[in-house]
Structure formats: C-alpha cells, structure tokens
Amino acid sequence: MQIETIATQPIEGQKPGTSGLRKKTPVFQQHHYLENFIQSIWTGIGGIAGKTLVLGGDGRYFNERAAQVVLRMAAASGAARVIVGQDALLSTPAASNLIRKRGTDGGVILSASHNPGGPEEDFGVKFNMPNGGPAPEGVTNKIFEATQSITEYKILEAHDVDLSTPGETTLGDMVVEVVDPVTDYAELMESIFDFDAIRALFKGGFTIRFDAMHAVTGPYAKAILEGTLGAPAGSVVNAKPSPDFGGGHPDPNPIWAKPLMDLMMGPDAPDFGAASDGDGDRNMIVGKGCYVTPSDSLAVLAANATLVPAYAGGLKGVARSMPTSEAVDRVAQSLGIDCFETPTGWKFFGNLLDDGRATLCGEESAGTGSDHVREKDGLWAVLFWLNVLAKRDQPVAELMADHWKTYGRNYYSRHDFEGVDAEAANTLMDELRGKLADLPGTKAGDLTVKAADEFAYDDPVDGSRAEQQGIRLYFEGGERAVLRLSGTGTVGATLRVYLENLVTAPGDLHEDPQKALAPVFAATDEIAGIKTRTGRDAPDVIT
Ligand code: G6P
Ligand code: ZN
C-alpha cells in the first residue's frame, strides 16, 4: 500500500457553519472536494500523526464512501487508530460518547443532521474535539484557513476496509477498529436512568411510538426501548436507516414528523410519542393530544431532574440558547441555580459543561442534552421523559398543566422564512440593526417596544466573544421576539423569527400558541418589514 500525495488547490466556500461543513452531496462529490476538506481538518487540528480518532455517520447517501476516504486519508497522515461504527454508522451523541469514553483525540462525524439526504440532497462533515464536543470557532477558523491555502493532500492507495463486522484490522500502519454503534451508548444510558422504573412503566401497559424517521436512531431505539426496556415490539417505527431517509426530511418537528403528530392528536394515540433526527441528536416529545415545545421540554426536565438517578443530587446550572424560550429561566430561578444564555449552536455549551457550570442544556431547535456527552442527545431526552413519567405516574398533558400552573407558560413559536434571497435577508437584518437604538418607546401594532438589542456573548470560561448572534425585541407586556439568520441552511437565506409571551394568569394557560402570539408577530413584522422584505405572506415552517 502506497501513500499518494495528490496536488490540489483551494476550493471556495469550505467554511464550516453552525455545525460543520454542509453542502449538497454533488458538491462534496466534486473532484478533491471532500479530500481537501479532510486534509484541512488534519492541518487545522495540528496534524493527526500518532492520534486516535472516532469515525461514523448518520447513514445518509455517500456516508460509507466518504468514510472510506477519511480512513485512507487518516492512514496516509499517520493516525494510529480509527474507531469506526459498524457500516460507518454512529449517531452524533454515540460518537461523542465514544470520543470521551475511549479518550481519543477527537472524531469525524459524517452528517448533515436533519437535512434531507440523497444524491441531490445534503451531506456534511464535522470535527469533534477530545472532549466529545463540536470544534469551537478557533479551530473551525484554522480549518477554514487551511482550505484556503491547501496545495496537496495525502491518501493511501488501498481497497475499501470491510466495515460490516466488528473487529480490528489494519490499513497501512493504522489500526481500524470496527465497533457495534449501539453497545457503548446503551451502557451509558443505563448508567444515567432508572431503567427498572421505565421497565415497570411498560409492563403496566404504557404505550409509546418512537419515530426514527428512517435515520440513525432506529437501531439504538429498537435495542434500548424494545429490547432492554420491554416496550411492545413495533413501538419503534421507521427504524431502518435509509440513505435518503425514506425520501423524507429527518427533522423531528410537527411539520416533518406529521404522521406521528396526526397519530398523537387522534383517537388511537399511544401514551407517549417521540422522534429523533437524521443523526440522532434532536428530539421531539409529544403526549396524547399534547405537543411539548423543545423550550418547555427543557424546563420540565430541569424541574424534574432529581427523579433521574444521575441528576438526583441536583443540577449545577442550566443553559439555553438565546432564542430558546425563557421557561427554563423560571425553573432555574426557583431552584436557585444559574441559567446561562448562549448563542445558537451546541458548541457554545461545551465550556459550561466542561467547567461544571451547567448540567442541562437545551435549544429551541429540538436539542436537549446534559454533561453526559458534549452533543445534544435525542434518545437521552426520550429516556429522561420516560423516567420522569414513570416516577410521576402522570400523563404528559397533566404534567404540562401542572408545570404551567407552577411556573407560568411561555407561549412560544418559531416562524421560518426559507430560501429567501440572501441579499434581501441581509438588508432586513442590517436595517433593523441600524434602528435598534430608536426603537424603545415606539408603538408597533398593539405593542410598545421596551428594549431592543443585538445579542453578543462573552464566554464566562474562556473569555471569547461572539457578536451579532440575533436581534432581540422586548415589549412592554413581557413579550419577546428574536430575529436571526440560520447558520445551517444550504439554499439562500433562512430568516427565523422566534416569538414568545409569558402568561401567568391561571385562566389563560391553555390557548392556541399561534393565537396567543399573533400580536407579537404583527408588531415584529411592522418593525422589521418581514413580509415586504422576504416577499412572503406567511412562513414556510412554523414550529
Ligand atoms: C444545528 C446545531 C444546533 C442549532 C441548530 C439551528 O442543529 O447543532 O445547535 O441550534 O443547528 O441552527 P440554525 O442556525 O439553522 O438556526
Ligand atoms: Zn442532528
């Protein structure tokens, strides 16, 4: 086997976004495209000679091909060992766990998360650090710099490695260790939750539908929910990972997981419904006739954390991304613990978790997690809910009603305007930014602006600063709106408008969120000119 040095030149646009480099698959399949980026990762992290890495992906189209390239490039650059999931599969939280458990020098995750997969759809590559979390900006910037000056890459000339069975083999001088993708993760879950209580719950006739959305959590959910915990066979649906996610959009929200929503809102609803995304880090929770927003879910988990063995001693603190609702803030306040507000992107939680300042974290974008790994974790959130329900012996709807009675309800919704002309979207944000100082005191629709600013974050651990992380409008009645441009889209710009209104009056806790938030959207539209600028009458997606 021979190491080849291939001459190449920089390819434009290889700048990692919120969560690694994401592009259409044909872009990744272009000559040298993947290879340039992988070599730049090696350069950006200071080389991989003698290092051990974890490798796996969500099983989407091009996953295994890309994995073979990564292996040959790792071998060519002197890596000592790569631990790779069987069939090149690893959910993102399972990869994070393996990196930590095995004390590796990091890992490469092949995924475009919740974006559709297939020959014409999306692919992605992301590097995670030795702590198991996504590379911070300092590192992704170095990777990006390397993509701009690359002149050659190294790759081993070799046959494909057989990834279909667990065991060790070699590729050149490098050891390739193929592992079952589920085993270590399942052990971790068992060490966190009260599996006996959940087993008893199922034994008592509790029913669940877990929709794996044809994505990577299928094998994990089957093994843990149906296998270890005894949920009835067939509780986990769409459990076989498919390269194009069954032609669907593996994003667990009421729009893309509509069949699950329909079931849960209908007469044959099981007690509990849940779904996870392409790479297994997002989750959706829904009770019988009762959808739980990710923001509320975080608040409920925080309020009930001591029912879970791993968190029985209490939480060190909680953290949420800025656009996530303030529901968890109210729980933190009553628990007397810190609540951190970070920019969008899981990577911003890493330091807080590493430094022991936060135990639970969550984002409105269906991400919830804790210090057990350094990624958000879909199945973990589902098991957390099951543990809480088993201990409280209460249906989801009743639990939510209790929660709102205690803490008030933060009505919450996100309106997305997708595939907007990038220039129009930037102009909207620039104009809004330009008038922030003049907004306080002005009337918009039925509301009056109390304060307006652009969110910047100073990391309390490493002192780094992230600017321009979303524009916040606070209104006199306690309402809040946030506007920001998505960092994960692959076509044009996506404008996200996050709407929130805290209500504490006991009689007003069960309204339709869209109705409760209509005045907030109207006021925000009047201020920012959303409909005019985007040319859209209504959002493409409401979550
Ligand atoms: C990914 C990240 C999340 C982030 C989400 C939304 O899933 O892992 O941390 O919240 O993208 O990002 P966006 O920039 O599209 O709103
Ligand atoms: Zn994901």
From TrEMBL:
The Alpha-D-phosphohexomutase alpha/beta/alpha domain, residue ranges: 14-153, 184-286, 295-407
Region Disordered, annotated ranges: 1-21
Gene3D superfamilies reported in the protein's UniProt record: Alpha-D-Glucose-1,6-Bisphosphate, subunit A, domain 3 (3.40.120.10), Alpha-D-phosphohexomutase, C-terminal domain (3.30.310.50)
Reactions catalysed, as given in the entry: alpha-D-glucose 1-phosphate = alpha-D-glucose 6-phosphate
Protein name (Swiss-Prot/TrEMBL): phosphoglucomutase (alpha-D-glucose-1,6-bisphosphate-dependent)
Enzyme Commission (EC) number: 5.4.2.2
InterPro entries, per database record: A-D-PHexomutase_a/b/a-I (IPR005844), A-D-PHexomutase_a/b/a-I/II/III (IPR016055), A-D-PHexomutase_a/b/a-II (IPR005845), A-D-PHexomutase_a/b/a-III (IPR005846), A-D-PHexomutase_C_sf (IPR036900), A-D-PHexomutase_CS (IPR016066), Alpha-D-phosphohexomutase_SF (IPR005841), PGM (IPR045244)
